[in-house]
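Task 17 of the worksheet. Students: predict the tertiary structure of the chain below and write it out as structure tokens. Keep your answer in the requested format; marks are given for formatting as well as content.
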Amino acid sequence: MKGYIVIRRVSITNFKAITKLEFEPHTLNIFVGRNNTGKSTVLEAIALACSSPRFEDVLGTNLLAETLERSERQLIRFDADYCKISVELDFGHTKEIEILPGKRVHKLSQDILESILSQIREYVSAELESEIRRIEFRMSALERRIEIAKRRGDETEVRWLENRLRELQSKYSKLATMRELEVNKKVREYLNKSDIILLHKFDNEIISITLAGEYGYRTVVLKEYEDIPVIRVLRRYADDIEEFVRHVEEESPSVLDEVILKLRYHIPELVNIRTKGDIIPRVYVSLKYGDNVKVVPLSSMGDGFKALLELYLLLNLIKREGVILIEEPEIRLHPGYMNLFVELLVNQIEHKPPVKLFLTTHSIEFLKLLAETLQEHRLIDELLVIRTYRYNDGTIDYEVLTGQDVTTELLELEQDLRGI
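Model answer:
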């Protein structure tokens, strides 16, 4: 997708509680508003539209699975019969997610429907084959237990085990002899019990289709293509970071080394961050005090340090182009660390990589510090703030503020951010 990676416009229609939302992103885009006004929903929508045909980000997170879990598959606005999320890229290219009610699956074109059926059939057949192998294993284990019980003369246990064996033999016989019928039955269940259909498109061509229902979801990829690198981070607990650090160390060790160097400039006692242990690997932090080096588990470090480490890693993982979406990055950052994070954001913008940043915040202190720092560096025009609010009837609306607008409307924004 080289040559048309930069997002020029975002359009969201009928996604969850949002009726219509459109804006042209700047380098740094921040969503503010009171609780339950759709800030996280916008991040979810952008992440889905920008992600791979399988809805994965660069960390291997399945973004669709997270979204379905949070919303219980209620992705289409309650009073609408479709949803559309669109991101316009350079040179007129477009990525799009269209979400339809499950009952419309049979209205898809015949060739697409056949592709869906073929891949679902393969998946169901493999699943059924695994079930048959599991039953064979259990029957073999029961036969061994029956022989042992017979040698002990335990007739009660023998009868009980033989009954269990007959039940498994009956189930095995049904699956083995009626395999094709079982496959067709499960395929029909996938089609008829789907609550929603997600069509993932590039330049109006469908590249993947996902059926989601009470059984879970199944994505059928029709065409592979080069993805927009995406990282989306929900609000985390401090203890969640250890797995993330291990992932970066394994997949991108140079990024971890670079982040350690940057942090060492501000935290001179920091020496290293590495995983140790073969059986139970844990992340350790080496700290130098005078001539002594102390090695401590990352889990014992303060929440502020762990939050700052995570943010530094996130903003260094995507170097050339892509999308980074973070919910409330200021959580757990005390004022000193918040200053460092703002410096990091400004440095990121100064180097002008074609990376779009989308954040949500509830902190007027963070927003004010960021606006002032961008103003000092003459980068205020790189900031866009989208203020969301909800009417009494549940409808979500928004207004778009430029960086210059933000500097003059901080008092009004503070009322939203503090929930006054």
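Marker's comment: Residues 110-191 form one domain. The chain has a mean pLDDT of 85.
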